[in-house]
User: Fold this.
Amino acid sequence: MSEAVLNFFICNNKVYDTVAFDNVYVEEHPSVYEVIRLINGVPLFLEEHFERLISSATLLGYNLNITLEEIRKNIERIVEKNNVQNYNVKLVVNNLDETKKDMYYFFIESNYPDEDMYLKGVSVFLYNGERENPNAKVIQKHLRNKINEQLKKEKCYEALLVNSNGEITEGSRSNLFFIKDDIVFTAPSEDVLMGITRQRIIRLCSLNGIKVTESKIKVAELDSFDSAFISGTSPKVLPISNIGDMKLSTNNPLLRKIMEIYDDEINSYIKFHKKTV
Assistant:
């Protein structure tokens, strides 16, 4: 089954019909990528996604000769061609070893939490695994496939990665935060993917007088926390109801405040960029 959905995708600035995707798209290792959420036609936090794409390639020893404006224009093209306003668009850069790299833009299956999930939270489980290079957003298809199989088996929303030291670092496709009393805890930046949503949350917490502590979180310490949530492009700020058999509060006032201020941030960004595009 093709990863690309809807009617059209772009490869190296050329528009193709999605039925040709599997013939055009070649997944090479290493490759870097970004998934950007489109809301009301606006690619959310595009500037940060661009910076992370460049950073991911740099961490692997490659230089991407691409500009923010080029990415913006190609997203606008694929949005117009597919006549869509709310979806996730994926950017992939392949052939990093070559002087001429291949760049793809395509829409992917996009599922967002419903109101009930934001109210009651979601179930997650612990998974022994870690990224090869946590700070780089690199495609690791084997790990992704194994986790997807386990997600279906466990009927859970997300898997929390546990490294060889017994520390919980992040979700398989999200970042992770815990709350204890009036303090927010998250794994050290060097141990996780620097999520765009994660960075915004940390900044917003600072601006709103909420203390955030980066520290290693052991599996053995889980029962000391009051609440937890994951963050990411699709889930935004999503409460966790339970980690395996361990229950967590989804009505924590601090958690609810963070959800509110992050939604306000999204609305402000969209309002501003709707005026400028």
